[in-house]
Structure formats: structure tokens, C-alpha cells
Amino acid sequence: MKKRVDFMVTAFRDGFQSAFGARVLTKDFLPAVEAAVDAGITHFEAGGGARFQSLYFYCNEDAFDMMDQFRQAAGPDANLQTLARGVNVVGLDSQSRDIINLHAKMFKKHGMTTIRNFDALNDVNNLIYSGQCIVDAGLKHEVTVTMMELPPGAKGAHTPEFYMTVLKQILDAGIKFDSICFKDASGTSVPSKVYETIKQARAMLGADAHIVFHSHETAGTSILAYKAALDAGANQVDLSMAPVSGGTCQPDIITMWHALRGTEYDLGIDIEKVRKAEAVFKECMKDYFVPPEATAVEPLIPFSPMPGGALTANTQMMRDNGILDKYSEVAAAMGEVVMKGGYGTSVTPVSQFYFQQAFNNVMVGPWKKIADGYGKMVLGYFGKTPVAPDPEIVKLASEQLGLEPTTRIPVDINDEDPSKGIGAAKKMLEEAKLPMSDENIFIAAACKEKGIQFLKGEAKVNVRKIDPKAAKAAGGEAKSGAGNYTVNVGGKRFNVKLEGNTALVNGKSYTVEVGEGTDAGTPAAGGAGQNVEAPMPGLVLRIEKEVGDTIEEGELLLVLEAMKMETEIHAPCSGTITEIPVKQGDQMKAGDILAVIS
Fold first, then answer.
1. H or E stretch including 554?
2. Could you read off the pLDDT of 36-84 as tens digits, one per residue?
């Protein structure tokens, strides 16, 4: 008799995050959920991770509404699972206890069954309270040990012995769990190490424990790693469905089915029904732009362990900002950043911290600008890193961020932070004159300004589809043009080719929106003053001053967001602000004028 292998379908969370940067509209994929249910699939990843914030940031949708609709499509008996980042829950920043507790209650209220709960640093202190909240809310708790392979030449963590130490700390802390997952978001763990890790975990946990192994195909070894995990005693693996399988995503159900043919293992599926479900899914997703890197195996990933769920999100943001040509340099710079940062696992949010710091090292200069998240991580504000970070980097981070290193537990720090928690979220809602509800409080806490923009009806749809007409029909406001033009501006000549929502200017691609009439914020021609220019591409997140305000040199003018980082723009001189030709939500290019100071 064959051994039954359990599996969870990750297509509608991790698949979306890994292939589309999590930017998928609910109405587009629900028919595929129904088709998967018809094929006999009962366990789905249905939200959490980047599929929370992305709905407010890019889809102009409510993640809680999406979860309600997912439950309706999947039926009352399906195991709907979401992903939580320990004390970070569903954001890049860590939260206070009241928000962590509210997260579990809201996800239970909106139809979820299980929460997979992990900490990127493998600091068990970050799993104790978050895990208790999940259990107290009546949800199943899947506690997690995060894995990756260190870049060649690095050592000191991420060995089977290291993972068993983390597992023993989980057991010693008395954390209640229904299952345990070994999660490799970058897909870099050597299969022999996966085998030894799962084998030792099975021996420690006993025969009845439910052990899950999760990986990605990015490095090309996921099937071999999955087989190693099963041979070592794992009960479950995570699988996806085309067109969001392979490459940066999980291996496909059909691929795994094929790999297990002739073995002692069986997925327990009707393969013809799965093929039909995948055909429906492909039809649902046919209008979405799939970046080529999303479907590729990248042999260099072990040297720069970037998770599938972050890789395409970052390359797409670089595409949007016209700097994709810098990606290879940024990826190459990640190895050093990982080694000097204390070996936190390359999974959100730490993977984003690694990428942001590598990005700064390339764009600004090596270690000239410490990214906020990376700096706080090496200083201890997200918990204890597996090994001590480089002392010189800790010193730089302390100097640049104005923070002292800490060994305090993050939730204790966050509970004392007046900018975090239910009280701070309520204040944001009151100032915006928005309704007070548990859902709105959590949205404000997790999404900050962008959450408030959504709740005020000011969010925009930024879903990448192949056909501009399809994007517009989905709720986008962009207008497009077409043609070839020669444009002379101030004596400078530009060759411009317009195709849909893309402008090719002297060979460089930009995303454009063309609207009728003139924008009241457009600056008048001429006039004296010092221009304040965008130092890099980014989104205008906050404007701190108004036209007519006096401002001192060095005073904060506005904040740009690029690559999920906030960049403060300070006044280069003292004077009076005569122009602010931008508004919140505008996408800027490097060199664009943000303000003029007389």
C-alpha cells in the first residue's frame, strides 16, 4: 500500500506573490478556486503574507472581503490557510501585542482555518505570543522553522543542528501547535541537508507529529528536496498550479505527481481533473503579465538567496522605476549583506531588508546608506539574529538611524511605541474621519498611509495586465496613446515611442498615464528658486509641507517610497516653498522636480 502524501495548493497566495508580485484581482481567480475544489483539492493557501497589503496597495480591494469570497468559493469544509510573520503578522514592520491579537481574531472571523506562523530570524520569542493568539482565536497553528542555504564560504548557522536547536526551543517554550513546517522560501537548501533536518525532527517529535516541508523551484532543486523530505518522514509538501508553478513558485501538482510515479508515494489525486482545473486557471490568468524571471530557474540564487515571493516583486518594482538594468548588480551585492547581517533567513521581511540594503549599496554606495529595516535588524529591534552581525555594520546602523543596539523582546518595545497599536490606528481613522471597526483598525495598523488612502476611496489599481483595455476594465484609470514622436524640450531632443501605457524615451522604458486637461499641481514655467529633485525613482508617500510655508535647510519636505523603503527628502536650503508640483501617490523618476524653494 502506497504512502499518502498530503499537499497544500499555494497557487492563490504564494503563487500570486511569486509570479505577479501578489497583484491579482479577486474576481479574476475565483473560478480557478472552484475548479480546484471540483478536482478534489481541499487545502488551500488563501491569504496572508504579501496578499494582505498588496490588495490595498495595488488592487484597490479589501483583503477581508477577498477571504470571505475565497471561503464561499472553496466551501465550508476546506482548510484555508494563511501566512503570518510572527510579530510582524502581515507587514514588514513588527507590531504591538494588541495588533498581533487582533490579526488572529480578524482572520478567524473572515473564514480562515489555519495560520502558518514563522519568524525570519528563528527567534522563538517572536513565536510565543503570536502563536498563543492564533490558538486562542480557535485557529490551527502551524509553527515554522525557516531554512535557507548560506552563500558558499559562509558558516555559523543553517545546519541541521541549528534547526534542531530552534525546534527544541519551540518545544521548551511550550508553544502549542497542530503541525510544524520547515520553510525554505529561497529554495536553496541542499537536499541532503533537508533529509537530515526532517529525519532529526521526526525523531525529536515522534511518529504522530504532522511535518510539512515548503520550498521553491528557483534554484532548480525543489523536487529533489521534496523527495528527500518525504524519505526522511515529512507528511506534507506545498504544491502550486500552472501558470504560477515552477520557477520562483512551488513545483506543480502535476510535476510532483509525475516525479512520484513508480515510488511508494501517492498524492491521492485524479490527475485528469487536476489538468482540467489548471486549464481553467490558465484561462483566468491569461491577461496577466508574467515577468520572464518568474518562470526561470536561476542557478546563481544560492549565492544570493532571494525568495521567489520577493524576487519578482523586486524586479517588477525596478521595472516600474526604469532601473531593471541594475538588478544583476543588486543581486550580486546580496551575498555580502547576508553575511554581515547575522544570517537571518532570507524570507519576508528579512529578505526585503537584504535586498533594500543591497539596493542602497549599489545605488548610493557601499554602506553609505543603511536601510531602515536592515539597520533595525542588526541592532536587534526585530529580535536576535542567528549569529552576531558584523560590529562595523552595527556601528554604522546605530550612527545613521540614531538608535542604540537592544536585546529587548520586540513586542515589549512595540507596546511602548505611541505610533503603534490600536490607539495609534484609531487616531489615524479619527483624523481621516473614517468609520471605526476592528477591520479598519487592523488595516490602518498594517498598511498605514496606504491603508487610509484605500479606506478614503483614493487608492489606485496597479495590476499588470498584458492588454491595457483589460487593465482599464478591471478598474484602472490609465489612458493610453500610441505612435512615434520627436519631442523638443528646452532645446533637448527626445525620441518617444508610445505603446499602451509604456513610453520608450531615447530607448528607456517608462510607465505613463495620459489624462485630459491640465493638472492644477503642474508648475508654471519660469520663476526663480532652487529645485528639489528626486534622488531616485519612487512614489510620493507623504508631503509634509505646503506651498507658501517657510522651511529651514535640512527640514523634512516630503517622503518618497521606493523598493518598499521610505526615503526622506530634506530641504537643501532655507526659504519659502513656491511650488510643489507633485501630489501623494505620484510616481516619480530620478531627477523629477519635487518642490521649488525661493
1. none
2. 999 999 999 999 999 999 999 999 999 999 999 999 999 999 999 999 9
3-state class of 11 per DSSP?
A: helix
Residue 485: strand pairing partners: 496
Other Cβ atoms closer than 10 A to 466: 12
- Cell 532543486 locates to 221
Written in H, E and C, the secondary structure of 208-266 is: CCCEEEECCCCCCCHHHHHHHHHHHCCCEEEEECCCCCCCCCCCEHHHHHHHCCCCCEE
Query: Residue 492 is which amino acid?
Result: K
Asked whether the bond before 535 is cis by omega within 30 degrees of 0, the reply is no
Q: Are 542 and 556 in contact (CB under 8 A)?
A: no
Q: Which residue, 115, 170, 172, 171, is CA-closest to 138? A: 115
The predicted model gives 157-181 an average pLDDT of 98
Q: Which three cell numbers stand for residue 55?
A: 490588495
The C-alpha cell that represents 410 in the structure block: 520586540
Q: Output Rg (C-alpha) for the chain, integer angstroms.
A: 24
Grid coordinates of 595: 518642490
Do residues 541 and 557 touch, judged by C-beta distance below 8 A?
A: no
> Do residues 405 and 87 touch, judged by C-beta distance below 8 A?
no
End-to-end, the C-alpha distance of the chain in Å comes to 82
Q: Is the pLDDT of residue 26 over 90?
A: yes
Helices within 456-541 (DSSP H only): 468-473
Query: Which residues have CB under 8 Å from 565's CB, separation 6+?
Result: 356, 359, 360, 371, 372, 373
> What is the maximal distance between C-alpha atoms in the chain?
83
pLDDT on residue 591: 82
**For the purposes of burial, counting CB atoms within 10 Å of the CB of 483, is it exposed (0-12), middle (13-18) or buried (19 or more)?**
exposed
CA neighbours within 13 Å on the CB side: how many for 310? 26
